[in-house]
Amino acid sequence: LTFYLFVTLFISSTWSGSSQLIGAGIDEPKPRLGCPIEDVNFPGYDIEDTGHVMSWQACGAICSLSSNCQFWTWGASASLGYYKNRCYLKSSIGGVREDVGFISGERGCQ
Length: 110
Known about the structure:
five-stranded antiparallel beta sheet, 2 helices, alpha+beta
């Protein structure tokens, strides 16, 4: 239930950008994700994937250097085989999937 609530709140706040408080006339800042989020995969919207990336920090740095990258997912666990040490740059996220062995973040998380 906790993970479901996190995902629901995350997805609704991510796509809404900033929202205005009713009656207050104040814009809320767009919330940031945890940096990084462990055991989470952002499936889809891949713009590039790179092998031999040795840390989630390096994957985040690669994302920051790509003008189209907004999110990233990195394969951390040896049990992932082919996906270990692969960095997936994402233009957007279509969802959030609990996926043991992956680490994900948004642009600026490095």
